[in-house]
Amino acid sequence: MDGNEARRYAKNLSAGAVLAVAVAFAALGFSGCAKQKLTSSDVSLSFNDTHGNNISLKLPCTDNCVPSLKGKVVLVNFWATWCDPCRGEIPSLIEFQRKYADKGFTLLGIAMDDDGAKVVEPFVKNTKFDVSGQKMTMNYPIVIGSDSVADKFGGLIGYPTSVLLTRDGKIVKRIIGPVSSEDFQQIRNMLGS
Predict the structure, then answer these.
(1) Is 78 within 8 Å of 150 (Cβ atoms)?
(2) Domain range 3-191, CATH class
(3) Please, what's the largest Cα pairwise distance for the chain?
(4) Domain ranges, ordered by start, for the chain
(5) Most exposed residue of 45, 101, 152, 190, measured as fewest CB within 10 angstroms of its CB?
(6) Stated pTM of the model
(7) Given pLDDT bands bounded at 50, 70 and 90, which one contains residue 51?
(8) Is the peptide bond before 178 cis (omega within 30 degrees of 0)?
C-alpha cells in the first residue's frame, strides 16, 4: 500500500479505529526515532509552503533557515485538513505558539493533504479556531508535506503525528495522536519556563 492509498484508507476509518491503531502501536513500544541526533544529511528537505514557494530545510538548522529553527525547540506537527483529531488539537497548538514563540519555541505544521496547497491554503487563511475565547487562525508556519518528507521523520501511521526536537536538533519524542498536556509540559521544561 503506497502513501496515497494509506491516506485514503485512513480517511475511511472512524476516529475510534485510528485511535485504536495508535494505541496498539504505542502498546507495542513503537517510539519512532527517540533521541536520534539529526544531522544535515539525515534531514534535508525541500517542500512548498501554501503559496507554492519552495522551502529547503536542513536540521539541525545552521544558516538562513526558513522558517528559522536555529537554536529553537521545534515541534514538527504532521496533520491534514480532513483529520478531526488534527483539527481538535489546533487551538492548543495556536495557544502554545502564541505563549512560547518568544521563549525559543516554534511549531512547524506539515500538511499532508493529497490535494496540497489548493486545499490547505484556504483552510489556513480562513478557518478560525476558538482559542481562549478568541477566534484565531493558525499562527505558525505551514508547509505542504509528502510521503518523502514524512519518511525523513520516521514515517507516519496516522494523523496527527508530532516530532519534538531539542535546540540542537535531537529528536526527543514522537507523539502519535494529539499533543497532550504532559507533552506541552515537557516542552515548557525544555524551554526553561
Answers:
(1) yes
(2) alpha beta
(3) 43
(4) 3-191
(5) 101
(6) 0.71
(7) low
(8) no
